[in-house]
Amino acid sequence: MIPRLLATLALLLAAAPAPAAGWGLEQLMATLADNRGGRVSFVETRYMALLDAPIESSGELVYVAPSRLERHTVKPRPETMVLDGNTLQLSREGQTHTVRLRDYPEAAALIDSIRATLAGDRAALEKTYALKLSGGAERWALDLLPADPAVARLVSRIRLAGNNGEVREVDIFQADGDRSMMRIGKPQR
């Protein structure tokens, strides 16, 4: 559930406006900090060692700054995941489960790192991750490499890629070898 949530959170970055000239990590973070929210469509493909074939899901992501994130999955089955402040709520098949993030410190650290990305908060990101930006404004990739051993036990790398201020791809590489690849549609404004 946590890797799927991380992909969801990171993908919501797609609603950010385009950055100015003289582009680099500081400019990317500033552009992301201007993102107040939005809606995007997504298609996620998950590759898991226990399964013979990948699992594909699709739906809509919603971000409301600074801390509300929603993932509304339509296929293969309806599911809604809402992160509001420090509460995560998952609803599917008529049942709702609620989790307090403070009860799961490693997961909270991962989620807070994604929130820091959404907020363009480089200092907060660097508390948990080493950041590596490659490419230019028209086609960039930001790798988040866990510096915190507890986080590294869950995820080996998160790669966000996009153009200008829009995140178009989020790939999460889990420490156990599983991975998810999410492709994001154009923001609905």
Automatic annotation (TrEMBL):
Keyword Lipoprotein found: yes
Keyword set, alphabetical order: Lipoprotein, Signal
Signal sequence, renumbered to the chain: 1-20
UniProt cross-references to InterPro entries, sorted A to Z: LolA/LolB/LppX, OM_lipoprot_carrier_LolA-like
Source species, domain of life: Bacteria
Entry-linked Pfam families: LolA_3
Name under which the protein is recorded: Outer membrane lipoprotein-sorting protein
